[in-house]
Amino acid sequence: MAEARIIDGKGFAAGLRARIGAAVEQLRTTHALVPGLAVVLVGEDPASAIYVRNKGEQTREAGMHSVTHRLDASTSQDELLRLVNQLNNDPSIHGILVQLPLPGHIDAQAVLSAIDPAKDVDGFHVVNAGRLSVGLPALVPCTPLGCMMLLKDTVKDLRGMHAVVVGRSNIVGKPMAQLLLQADCTVTIAHSRTRDLAGICREADILVAAVGRPEMVKGDWIKEGAVVIDVGINRVPARDPAAAAAGKTRIVGDVCYAEAASVAGAITPVPGGVGPMTIACLLANTVTAACRSAGVPLPAGIGL
Ligand SMILES: NC(=O)C1=CN([C@@H]2O[C@H](COP(=O)(O)OP(=O)(O)OC[C@H]3O[C@@H](n4cnc5c(N)ncnc54)[C@H](OP(=O)(O)O)[C@@H]3O)[C@@H](O)[C@H]2O)C=CC1
Ligand SMILES: Nc1nc(=O)c2c([nH]1)NC[C@@H]1CN(c3ccc(C(=O)N[C@@H](CCC(=O)O)C(=O)O)cc3)C=[N+]21
Ligand SMILES: [Mg+2]
Prior knowledge:
The protein is α/β, with parallel strands linked by helices. It is 41% helix and 16% strand.
């Protein structure tokens, strides 16, 4: 069997950002509309700090307005809610993202519920989750949206395919399953209590792994020719023992890539697969939110 086709999320994301940049330029010149994104980071989590910096840079590169609020880890829930409320009422801001995880003393659900659903570019508010599940226009969570764009680009006709999603979180697994269902896939959602996970995965034409366990999905869990979307971002010790001893790390997915690549028909790498799509879709959602708030038609080429 030939090696799997590598799904180039990094390249696809660069193309999407270019289309977003062109759309932003159009909105500015024809509607005097500049989409604005506010990212809120509470505390010092180093991984989160990198993503937040990338989000700010890529937002500005696309010609959008970008603000980042870095708050101390000791910030109270009330202070955070006040900031969210201020951003809800700021007409220059069309999208609000509060980086997760939040420190333990803050109720994340209370904060997410305080975001104006029209500015909820993460798509985590119950109003957007509900709209997605009943098939109304919604802001769709960025990671599943990005996975879906890659799938539609990879597979000609998704209808009737058996999609298995491993993971049922509100931010990845559940909305991913909703989007696959909307695309007429037959969807199985697996999780930590699923019996015979390997056997169920082996039935998948499309396998989405969003588990958070390094290289859990093995090559013999994958059907010959299946499309594998690896959402996992797991930091593990560097391959070189000396480097590992010095604390160096590398990133791997939830799928054992080396094994999977000789069985699958197509697969996303980690890094360079789903991750870059997540940030590009955040920019896309911000443009979508800005257009809806201004009553301007959505630009073509930046959605599903
Ligand atoms: N590329 C990107 O842009 C993004 C990547 N991620 C990455 O995706 C992964 C998943 O993230 P997220 O959904 O937030 O994680 P969560 O921890 O919220 O959810 C993990 C899910 O996996 C299930 N699970 C855990 N262990 C097993 C197991 N042994 N067998 C089967 N299922 C299992 C859990 O089941 P149960 O519900 O029963 O506990 C749960 O539903 C992480 O690696 C994360 O870093 C996340 C967001 C964006
Ligand atoms: N409110 C909120 N929304 C999120 O969307 C959100 C969040 N909180 N908390 C953390 C997770 C994780 N996440 C990623 C974004 C980009 C990459 C990414 O760009 N990855 C690159 C680089 C990986 C690297 O080298 O670090 C890649 O996979 O190629 C990964 C993961 C968004 N998340
Ligand atoms: Mg990736």
